[in-house]
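Practice problem: Acyl-CoA dehydrogenase
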Amino acid sequence: MASKAPIPFSDPPALMGLPSPYFTPSHLKWAKAIRPFITENLHSLAIESEQSPTATVPESVFSTFAKHHMLIPALPAPLPVAWLKKLGIHTLLGGLKVEDFDSIHGYIYSDEMVRSGLAGPPGSLTTGIAFGLPLILKFGSPELQEKIVPDILLGTKRICIAITEPEAGSDVAGIVTTAKKSPDGKHYIVNGTKKWITNGIWSDYASMAVRTGPPGSGAAGISLLVVPLKNHPGVNMRRLKVAGQISAGTTFIELDDVRVPVENLIGKENNGMKYIMTNFNHERLAVATGTTRQARVALSAAFEYVMKREAFGKALVEQPVVRHRLAKAGALLESLTAWVEHFAYLMTKLPAEEADVKLGGLTALLKAQAGIVFKECADTAVLLFGGNGFTTTGQGMIAESEFLIFSSGWMG
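Answer key — structure tokens:
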């Protein structure tokens, strides 16, 4: 009996069996190994978690991912092999050796994590470790790494990255949260606020941008500190109500005379802006990958719907205007996918220091283009679902939720 044909646009071409210049047998084996695990342990709960009154993924999901070392692939490649082997972690799912993990394995993981169409549930698990830990691994002292890294890699503690502030927004050089040394020189005293901090509410630590330079020092006066959060004196956190990624734990953090040991400084004082920028390629590629998958989920759901929905005596897909709209969005989607995969490939070939310089601007364009294509696919899905595209339950729910993200301006 012939197998059922896959829905068009439901997976990247390489995962639909087409040849790829980038995917090796190792990459395809990895994709096959992680899909059932992520489907069973995350996607089966994604919609319920996003729509529940608490909008929270069960804590057991994080524990399961930590137990099976499935938070680690959120880190940029190459992985911290020495640390992982020191902790007894030699392989990932499917027998992939940690030293063989590259940016294409990371791309496959990031894509798979968002296959439900919702970014909130996977974001609740991985955003902190993906963006908060690399700075410590790259620039933290051996003593600081010994203090923080093992618990984060093993999933016994959690971390986030805390840069954005109410006043500065995306203007990182304009942050006003201050870190001044205590009279005895043993602590930084941190005062200020952080906003839109994903995973903050659950985090034990934050890799936090603070101003150690004088007022008006701009980018040259920014440092990075590992700031204790949960149950730490002077720290107050509350969840923010947001329109997108509801279950990702977006947090407002208030810091009132928070004492942080000077040993928690990441790298050198006033070098924070330079350190932050080294994380951008990984962050932007991860965001572009997830956004591309969300676009894919919306468009393939619409394609499936119009093949079975009948109106005016025939299936909607038989209408030329419907096929044209699908084709237009599909062309944009597959072009974007090819660009994302090319970037992942480039990051397997360029040394990190060279990639930071040569790919920084282009990954910014990639992230922006992903948003444009996502909007086209979400618009198309809502249009083709008709009234069902404006329901928060049932077959049009994903299309509606993704359309809402753009209506609210969430992608910025």
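Discussion: The mean pLDDT is 92. Students who identified this feature from the tokens alone can consider the problem solved.
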